[in-house]
Amino acid sequence: MFGNKLRIGRGSCRDGKVAILIRTAVAGLAVSLLMHATSLYFGQGSSIAAGSKPPALMTYPNQVVRTDKPGQIGLWIEGEDWQLRVDMPGFVDVEWPFTSPSQFLYMTNPILQTPVSIFAERVAGADSEESCRRHYAASFEQAHEAKARALGDRGTTGPLSEFSANGKILQAYEFGVGSDYHAKALHWLPYYQGFCFDFHFTVSSPSAEKEVLRILDSVTYLAQKPRNTDVERLFYLYHFRIRLSVPIDWRWGFRPPPGGPIGGIELRQPEKGEVFSFLISPLGTVKSAEDHTVDMTKERRQSKLERGEVLSPVRSKCSAEVCFSYYDVTIRGDEPQYSQGFATYGLRYHRDGFVRLGDSIVGISLLYSDGGTAAADHLTEKITQAKVLDLKEFRNKVERGDVKELMKKIPK
Fold it and tell me: Which spans are transmembrane here (predicted)?
């Protein structure tokens, strides 16, 4: 059933084979598109009615939550009082666009070379797994045909079929590209509380298929919403998608300029709690490989020092890949830029700095009260784990067929 597996790794395949794999991955996006959306989802405006003005900042209800169990994730739809949990050790996020607001994630297991997308949407009249399969039947046919067209003369696509595994009915079809890449697309469509889920895996070996079946067997439903945890929010700010883990009860909104050339994301305290206002502002993209955010932070600090403000030295908080450079300001009530927040909200501290996320420079401004230090420290750590995807630039790379640049987004 499975032929020679195309290994995705440094120096492991020629550009021609990589191009085939990219076309296959883009074809996968097209399949998800036909299953779950009406236009390829590249951010702002894709799900907004024609002629209307889209909001500057959007998020969508389907959220991913990390649980205390290693390798386990929770899938939660905002507004619902339940969650789905599934064990997916070894899977990591791929910073590619989603195809629909109903999508939770796009991940891959680099060892098994197994990508996965998971969706959920409320379907009128659905009351069982069988009704979900009926709902998606026509879309599966269209998606299957789209896969065949995308692969073209260089590829083959087998017939759609159903099979039973461990009490579950899965839809599947095989496809291949010459002798270099053979795989099977697997869909499982469980039902819960008015929602149809779609677990979509692509496997290229028997061991990968066995692992997928184990993953599906691990799915459980918990009759309570997530609490006291972080949620991996995807913020769509114009053509940027910012992935950031924040406490589930933090509120958010759009802050118009001058919080940056296009404004920014403002994070605020929950309904009850210490007062804070955190601003995250994309400032633009850079082509240089050098990170100049430390120098930018020093320059900003120097301008404040010359005004006589009480400042800390420049500090850095780093993850394995990213460093956030910042300094802290102790606010005085007589400073014009802080006077209102000082008097009205008790804001006493300002953490100010810059971070480079990929090719994007992001300004970070954290204002908080005496009790908000823990919240500021929490976001300081999480911002070093954030990811920024320039959706417009990604679309341009797809249109140009820029294979090597697209491959950089796939974890090795």
Answer: 20-42
Find out whether the peptide bond into 247 is cis, omega within 30 degrees of 0.
no
Return the DSSP state at 345.
Answer: I
Q: Buried b / exposed e across 253-282, counting CB within 10 Å, b at 16+? A: ebbeeebbebbbbbbebeeeebbbbbbbbb
Q: Alpha carbon of 256 to those of 253, 262, 281, 376: distances in Å?
A: 10, 7, 10, 22
Look at strands 310-311 and 315-318 and give their pairing: unpaired
DSSP letter at 269 equals -
Q: Which helix (H) or strand (E) holds 216?
A: helix 206-217
Sign of CA dihedral 150, 391, 232, 120: negative
Secondary structure element (H or E) that encloses residue 302, with its range: helix 293-305
Residue pair 245/236 in contact (Cβ under 8 Å)? The answer is no
The rounded distance, in Å, linking the Cα atoms of 185 and 203 is: 7
pLDDT tens per residue, range 235-260: 999 999 999 999 999 999 999 987 67
183-233 residue pLDDT tens: 999 999 999 999 999 999 999 999 999 999 999 999 999 999 999 999 999
Q: Do residues 325 and 316 make contact, with C-beta atoms less than 8 angstroms apart?
A: yes
Instruction: Say how many CA atoms lie within 13 Å of 50 toward its Cβ.
Output: 2
Residues 6+ apart with CB under 8 A from 374: none
Side chain identity, residue 222: L
As given in the structure block, the two tokens for residue 22 are 């990219």
Q: Tokens for 364?
A: 């970070």
Alpha-carbon gap, residue 351 to 327, rounded angstroms = 6
**Rounded to whole angstroms, what are the CA distances from 82 to 118, 195, 220?**
17, 12, 11
- Residue 407 CA to residue 403 CA, distance in Å, equals 6
User: Would you identify the CATH topology of the domain 240-391?
Assistant: Jelly Rolls (2.60.120)
Please report where in the chains the tokens 């099977």 appear, as a residue. 184
Separation between Cα atoms, residue 231 and residue 336, nearest integer Å: 36
Given a cut of 80, whether residue 333 has pLDDT beyond it is no
**pLDDT given for residue 199 in this prediction:** 98
Tell me where in the chain the CATH 3.40.1000 domain(s) lie.
Answer: 15-226
Which has the higher per-residue pLDDT, 41 or 99? Answer: 99
Contact of 254 with 57, CB cutoff 8 Å: yes
Instruction: Classify domain 15-226 at the CATH class level.
Output: alpha beta
